[in-house]
Design goal:
The structure is a single chain. With 135 residues, this protein is mostly helical. It has one domain (3-133). Helix content is 44%, strand content 5%. The protein is built from six helices and three strands. Strands 1-2-3 form a three-stranded mixed β-sheet. Strand 1 and strand 2 (51-53) form a beta hairpin. Helix 5 crosses helix 6.
């Protein structure tokens, strides 16, 4: 199970019952969720122009988090918001999955890159991403 697929699945297909097949570099998958019945539950996911409204989904999760989490700029907070392991080793795993070519010991630079890549992958897999998060 890929970490990126889990992230994309939790945001774009929260009722899809599984990991999304997120596109990673070099892949040509459609980004459709693996298994699960979207059914009526998926209709409650906020959409804009037929795409899942990533900002609305994450703001809703943040409002329920019980702690301030800045998902807009922090990959660590984004992962925490999704109840995923946000440790350095987990982020290094995500970096490897996304073919990060920088120094994984420079976690600040890697974190910024990871956040941008995850936002880009959300958009590539059918998410409506706010303009201020695109690079």
């Amino acid at each position: 199970m890929s970490l990126l697929g889990t992230i994309v699945g939790k945001i774009l297909h929260p009722f899809g019952g599984g990991e999304a097949q997120a596109q990673t570099p070099g892949e040509t998958t459609t980004g459709a969720p693996a298994g699960g019945d979207k059914g009526a539950a998926d209709s409650t996911v906020p959409k804009v122009d037929g795409k899942v409204d990533v900002e609305a989904v994450l703001n809703d999760l943040a409002a329920k988090a019980g702690q301030p989490l800045n998902w807009r700029t922090s990959i660590v907070d984004l992962m925490k918001l999704l109840h995923l392991d946000s440790s350095l080793s987990a982020r290094k795993e995500l970096a490897k999955e996304l073919n990060y070519s920088g120094d994984t010991e420079d976690s600040a630079t890697m974190n910024v890159w990871l956040h941008k890549q995850v936002i880009r992958k959300l958009e590539e897999n059918g998410g409506k991403v706010p303009a201020d998060l695109k690079d």
